[in-house]
Design goal:
Layout lengths: L4 E3 L2 E4 L4 E6 L10 E6 L6 E6 L6 E3 L7 E6 L4 E6 L8 E7 L19 E2 L3 E6 L1
């Protein structure tokens, strides 16, 4: 089930930047906390970043902190992940995900895939040396 739609993936050299986007279906879907996960071939999906409903609070995985920035534009119903200083180990399929409740929780509790109900199809990011 593809309910969100990522775009913007591609190939970039190490040290470069890339921004991926995810359009959230209209209605109540756009009112939930949103996140980005990544999945490398043969590995489990890993948390990257999460942003609160109003976009005022964010949390990042240690591996991307200081390099990636998550943001959202609720008018456009879109969540973004700006990826800077990319490394080869960042190579993965990036997925956006949405919760299914408007209730507010500490972001530190929203770092596992099981906390999210709606997912996109993923967009591939490849970082070369």
């Amino acid at each position: 089930q593809v309910q969100l739609a990522e775009s913007g993936g591609g190939s970039v050299q190490a040290g470069g930047s890339l921004r991926v986007s995810c359009v959230v279906p209209g209605g109540t879907f756009s009112r939930y906390a949103l996140s980005w996960f990544l999945q490398a071939p043969g590995k489990e999906r890993e948390f990257v970043a999460v942003i609160s409903r109003n976009g005022r609070n964010t949390l990042y995985a240690d591996s991307v902190k200081g390099r990636f920035i998550i943001s959202r534009d609720n008018d456009k119903k879109t969540v973004y992940l700006q990826m800077n200083n990319l490394k080869p180990e960042d190579t993965a399929v990036y997925y956006c995900a949405s919760r299914d409740t408007i209730l507010t929780y500490p972001l530190a509790r929203l770092t596992t895939a099981g906390e999210y109900t709606y997912w996109g199809q993923g967009t591939l990011v490849t970082v070369s040396s």
